[in-house]
Amino acid sequence: MTLVAGVVAVQGDVAEHADAIERAAEDHGRAVEVREIRESGIVPDCDLLAMPGGESTTISRLVHSEGIAPEIRDHVAAGKPLLATCAGLIVASSDAGDDRVDELGLLDVAVERNAFGRQKDSFEAPLDVDGLDEPYPAVFIRAPAIDDVGDGDATVLASWNERPVAVTEGPVIGTSFHPELTADSRIHGLAFFENDAATVRALENTQ
What we know:
Strand content: 25-35%
CATH architecture: 3-Layer(aba) Sandwich
Largest sheet: 7 strands, mixed
Number of helices: 6
């Protein structure tokens, strides 16, 4: 059976995320259909969901104005996986540190925007990520850092220079870096195809 993967396409590396999802699905022996999300009504049909980077204030404004925000919240409340990267992490957080961002509150974390510098300070670093056997080649571009993890169920998956840069809570994984910009699709695999919620949803769809 085929899983439906949605990529929030209001801004960011949409095609790159779609390619990474397809590679990860192939690596895990799964079939997937990727849909781009620019308006409401598509998220409810999705088993998996990615929210790319870009400009967090713009993403926040558009997901709310287009009616996508409540659908993303419902997706997560149903236990279905969400991967939120870079600016997507900021929007998914509970505290973006910026009044212009209307957070979704899906990850009980506070973030600092551009914590590792501006565009010219972009870098790649080998990250030890919980759930992966080998270091992951993480690409940081105007990356946020996780300043504070709440007292709930949020768990740090990876840190760089003693600052958390990947976190998970329930079916959500958020990363400061851009996993779609490498040929290594293990983060997408971890978020979607090694995620209990994705497995349960796939079994439901076969019934």
